[in-house]
Amino acid sequence: MAESAPLLSPTNSAESVIPAARKQLSSLDDVIEQWIGTFGWAQLLQAFLVSFAWFFDAQQTFISVFADTEPTWHCTQLAGEPCNSVSNICNLPRDSWAWDESQNSSIISEWDLECSGSILTGLPASSFFLGCSLSGLVLATLADTWLGRKNMLFLSCLTMSISSLLSAFSPNIYIYSLLRFVSGFGRGAIGACALVLSSELVGKRWRGQVGIIGFFCFGLGFISLPAIAYINRRSTWRNIYLFTSIPAIIYCTLVHIFVCESPRWLFVKGRKEEAVSTLRSIAPISPSGETLSLSAVDAVDCEKETMNVDLYSAIKILFQRRWAFRRLSAVMVIGFGTGMVYYGMPLGVGNLAFNLYLSVTLNALAELPSALMAFLLIGRLNRRSSLLFFTIISGVCSIMCVVLGHDGRPGLQIGLELVSFFSACTALNVLLIYTLELFPTCVRNSAMSMVREAVVFGAVLSPDLVAASRKNGFLSYGLFGLVIGSCGVFVACLPETRGGSLCDTVDELDRKEEGNGDGGSNGPT
Cα separation of 464 and 494, whole Å? Predict the structure, then answer.
């Protein structure tokens, strides 16, 4: 992309772009801050294009809500048959009832799965999340080692999109479930790659706000699904996949052509020429008209990572370094608690004494103000205190939903549920930004992927708790509140990162930790 004038400039003139001749470049962070510390149009376009991957991520995550649902039905023969709206459909003759919508409106109606067991009907959704889990384990380190951020984002999104397109042509539930598994496998790496890449294309002053753009896009993708499903309610569930997968494939093409690789990752891998070229293409125009040259950064203390760089070297680093193990353990525990509430709350609203459709809509809409709040305040919020605050608020309100459920006040109950869900959404947004600030460039994507794995693991347990809560309400919202509140206190194990510089190598962060009195080369304790 062409060079651009600054779009957003820091109010402190000391943070403005300084000509290279006037400032000694002593580290990679100095280079990054000097040339892309301000925020120009080229960076905005790059960040938005990268973050828009979350839009398609959300669509494929929640598409089964409409494609795999069991449609409503009605009786066609009343005489001589006890057919009514509460009859067990499996005990009725097939000619005594019919679906309200088209036979092809869902996989349940098209493939005659209405009387199949829950294991078979839930197989596509389970396969999707299983693919997401395996993706986090298999693909997590590729963006840090071999492929880089851009290529990993492109390949992951393309895999998800093509498998979703093929899902529209599935002949049976088994092929459909296999394609959903592949789609989940591709989807598992998208969020981490998009968040890390977008944050590494800007200076430290703007990385929090840029990271929030992805959360906005995720919310918009979630909200777009009901509109797409409503348009196709009288046709076929296959159209929902066509409407979501074809635009996603076009998006992948745009990513491959226009998105730049992370200059930080290129520097760390010793590809300085490419890094300088990337910085030139996205940096706002310097007031002096100077441009960055390779000779200007030859003396920068940004050594190539000297450790063995294989597929799982990043994972080894995260578990061998004491500071890395402590940080990763804490953020994964917090991620587990927030994931349980984030995915479990929308599933459990059917157990509340409130209109199901309205409550689901309100939960979906809560995503946007949560992202907006994080966007406006992320530059001012201390990561530790804000995470603790939102997890405790979410936990308290979730428990209060159970307490007030016996008092016959559904309006207040759904209000507390929304506050709890909103707080969990905001906590998750802050946690992801916090995670990318806690780890150096060489393992950042791997750490982010493992935190998202913890979030998904929390989500895996939520459906069972929601099902059990039909007999005991405390097993969903009560337990949700206890878990997220307890997990939130682990933030005390983490350092504050607001306004700090991003480290790029493990050795750099080792030295920083040693300066703080905590050795970095020991094993986990």
Answer: 31
